[in-house]
Protein: non-specific serine/threonine protein kinase
Organism: Sugiyamaella lignohabitans
Amino acid sequence: MANVASAEGSLTQEMDIFSLGCVIAEIFLEGASIFTLAQLFKYKKGEYKPPLGDIEDESIRSLVMSMISLDPAERLSADEYLNQWTDKAFPKYFEFLHEYIENISRPLQSVGNTERARHVESDQRIEMIWKNYRRISRELGLVVDDSELDGPGHVRSGNEEKGEKNGYIRGEYGDVDLTFTSTVGGDVIPVCLDLPGMDNWIPKKKKTLPGDHDDGALIVVAVVCSAIRNTLRSSSKIKACDLLLALGEQIHDEAKLDRCLPYLMSLLDDTSDNVQVAALRSLTQLLTLVGAITPINDKIFPEYIFPRLTLLLQDRSSVVVRAAYAACLPTLAQIASRFLDMGQILQTTGIMSEKDPDIENGAVITEDDRKRAYDVIKQDLSLVIEEHARSLLTDHNPDIRRALLRHIVPLCLFLGRQKTNDVILSHAITYLNDSDAQLRMQLFDSVVGIAPYVGSVSLKEYVTPLMMQSLTDSEELVVNKVVQAFTALAGLGLLEMSYIWELLRACAKFMVHPNNWIRNSTFCLFASSTRWMSPAQIYSMLWPILQPFMEGDINDFSVASLSIHAKPPLPREIYNLTATWATKAQKSIFWKTEASHNKSTKRDKTIDLSNEKNRSSKPKNLRATAEDEQWLTRLRVIGMKESQLWMLALYKEYIFRVFRSRSRRVDERHSPTGGDNTSPFIKMQDLGILPQNVFFDTTPIDDGFSDLLSSSAIKGRINSKTSSPVFVDEHFEATRLLAADVDETDSAGGSGRLGGSNSDSKWRELIMAHPVTGTVFTDVYGELDSQLRDSQLLDGGSGITPSKETLKYSSYTGDDPYIWRMLGSVYKDSVTFESPEFGPRCSPYTGSMKPENITKKRKGKMGILAANYEEHAGPVNAIAVAPDHSFFVTGSDDGTVKIWDSFRLEKNVINRAAKTVHFKAEQEKPNQVKCICFIENTYSLACGTTDGSVNLIRVETVNQSSSLSGPRYKPVVKLNGFKLNSGEYAIALSHGQTSSSSLLYVLTTDSRIVVFDLIAKKQVAVMENPSSHGIPTCFVLDKHKNWVLVGTSRGILDLWDTRFQVHIRSWGIPGGQPINSLSLYMNPKAEGKWVCVSGGTKECEITVWDIETVQCREIYRTTPQLSSHRHRHGESSSRREPTPTANYSPVDVDKSMVNGNNNGPPTLSILLSQLKLQTDQEEQRHNDDTQTERPSQHDEPPRADSILSLSSGYSIDHTATGPNRRGYLLSGGTDRIVRFWDLNALDHSTIISGIKAEATYQPSYVLSYPEPNTRLVTERLVSSVSSSSSQSHKSSSSKKPSKSDRPPRSTIIACEQLDLSRNHQSSVLAVALLLKPFEMVVSADRLGTIKVYI
């Protein structure tokens, strides 16, 4: 190399400068080189010019041009470049920062171990930067002088500000404490930095930063972040957190999130609690400094920060860390909401990408998608923060709850009023019973900030009454905090004036309290209350309350005046001795009368303080026994005067409550059972007993061996084994013998598991041991693993050897028969048995319908007809929707059940059902399908026919690859059903699934409710409805299967308890008309208690009844002006307008019965009259539907329409305050109109079909309250013609109509045809709602027509 250098020339400094220029240019060109080898040769010849135009900085461009000059003489030295380009290409602090970074980066020579040297170097590097931060900030231009620290974010240690002294600031009503408490989590936020050589200050957000202002700070940040990775000492990590926060104030927002935040998040995994707290504090304060975010950071909270902070809520985190997080959570919630809003602004302004990378082909995000995504993220964020808040509010450590309460206000602002009441207030009021006095004090410190967010109703009904009760708290400091909270609430005007008077009367006695803090707080309360009083109120109402406690008359009601003129307080010695008297009194009348007053709601006025005589003499009602006189003597000995007896009587109730509660808290604190000494329960852990977990095998076990119990072999062995003169349960003994045979078979090498094809009910009966009257001392262990033969049962021996490998239905291996019996009961009640014959279980559709979609899809007044089917040859009596809404089923009088595919309603142009099931009659009479219901969460359904059969069928499907095409259908499988009594058939069906049974409830024409067990294939219960109440027409089953309500032809409702088969009550609906349909009221406010009833009254309306109180709660009444079969012929309905004050009181069935005995058989005349009534009604409805109605020759009023079918459900609205359930109803009847009723919002109610296309009116709904507890919703018709058109109509009404004003005949015919095809032409007998593939309403009428509306 030396020879080459000498031959070609030596390396010079100018060459290094040329290389440095190329490197600098490559840096500013983001890695692109300015020369290739060929270009370099051309540049040397002057044939190439480097592309330096892409360098935006003019100073850097001129510097590079000078460094790569072709003439080496034109290139300057390094020192000359630094001097000439300082404050141009190089900042002023370049030389300092270069020298400083070089000094702190020197490796240590004294430490031999390389790994340890790296750790020590990192610790020393952070220590040096922390000590020299003042010099670094000055050199980098971060802080010009000390005057920059004097601002809103600066905190001087000496409290030099005017009016502030020793941590207190002088206010109008006294000194307000500004210092932080020294408890856990007290001074977490905001972070006050204390770096060497600098005054304490709180980092604040910078309004604007120059373009290159933060370059030096970013270099120091990089050094600190690199050192954090290898630090060894916790103190260095804490100082690094302070440095990142101090430097984060000086850098731009993107660097705060991209460079500082990840390292602070990594420190949350540190083993030191102090480091975790420091990182959490700095993290929270750093995020408050962020004023703008980049698009990549719009979801930083839900996807990065909160998932990591969730780990801090675990029990393995220390109390200090959880308390610090509790203090930071409200601030983080507020920052997260601000970040989400900034992200939405970026999307709205178009800064953020309009394409979603998660969507194939990069589909463009629309405005609706953007709003929907914002709502979803907002809701998810709210749920996460709500979950964290609940976890902290319910933490077992009071320090954590106290830390959260201290900073609760931003969290209330984030959650809103509803969530503040549900989450924060509901947990906070439970702290009043907590034994920690500091927690109760902090609660009343925070209640002033919470009060504006909970609302006036919660403040009046919950907060202030509990605060009033806390005035008798056992801790005087808590009482002082309560009075201070009342003072702040009164000063803010949050208390009503009527409540303020009650409050002042209750707190007036504290003016003579021995505690000076309570006295001063009481003076502040009275002074603050006068702010909202007129002079007349002060002297006429306030002064009589104050006068007994003042030495004389006063004109000034300030704090100073009240404290000067107030009477001396009750001495502490007298107060304490009186408290001792109250706690130790045994034969005292004085305190016993007070105890009786506490139990009574009425209070006697013990003393009239407005009378001077009562304040200067012994009160007249101060009754005392000999024991009381002894205590009074002791009080006089220590200095009590006779003039102070009125104070004693005044504080009697207060002292009694305070010290009784104090003694109770002391007992709870020292009680080994947590304060409940009278509890009849003993904790097993206190006795040192370790619980044992028992696991059950939930695999269905076939029980073919159950039939063997009836075999002669088993019975013979039972008789031979039980020769003792005791009564032994055959089931128990058979189980024992079978287990013994299995054990013997297993020992011989065979498989001993029992199997079979029968249902599981017999196996459950075998497990559930029947009561026995004798004792069997032999314990049996067996393995039920295969099916046994009769020969195996006959060859078994009597020897029994327990085997640990035997498989049982539980993991219990003991031999206690009582535990086995208990496990058998638990197994039966907890394990769900499913029958394979009903097919696999399908997942029910969890989506919900939005009432707004039903309303918005109405173009005018009508629904859009999507499909029209006329395949049925008779009236359609029932519609049932599959659990997953993939298809629906209809049953008709033509004896068929048809299956309709929901996904092919619009594509099915041939108007054919997917599958049809025919039920042939055994006799010549036609077999009609009257009712249908699905077996819960399966594709199997039950059908009731008029031949007395309850048929079970299973719909076989094959899922296709596309989720939008729906399933393909196989032939329908008919299962074994049930047969009712001769001449009896099912009217209504309902299915109920429990953990151990599948029950089918059948309402029959013989007034019976028959319950079949579909697994056991047998009848398990029968409930006979009173025949005198009428023929059953419908029933409804509770969703918890606890009760069933039956409606009859005489307008009577019968309530049954299905658990005990007990008839609970009966009542009649005013009007006595047949009840057509029943449905559950799906509104969450009364779900499970209210039932919707159509019929019963003489109006076309739906009534809602409370089955607990037997009261009519709501009425949904249709308009008498709508009647499709009358409007079709140009007639107006003459149905009378019902009065709003109609009587809806329940009818006493016992008094109204003519027959006298409800449970006895009815007379022949009553049965004939009921049958005639039902026949006449059917014929009249049929005539109305099939014949043209003619005007009556008599003046009799026409028959009123009635609602024949109901269908109820609910929707879920996801609002900012959480999910909200809303109920709805679908109805159809003889007026041929299908209506949608929204139970919560009347504006969403509408008419789906039934109005003529050319009608000029639309329905509206009016809410009224005819009775205090009855809600009436009335349907009205409102003209849809505009006011201008109505005025023009009035102006031209005087003119005779001309032929040109009439519509053309073709138009009239087209409208009539449209009306015939779109509306039902007969009574609507069944309605249902489909939710897949979108919301659709299905209705069917008496002519067999099925219409689907969207």
About this structure: The mean pLDDT is 75. The first strand starts at residue 164 and ends at 165. The CA atoms of residues 1050 and 1261 lie 30 Å apart. The first helix runs from residue 2 to 8.
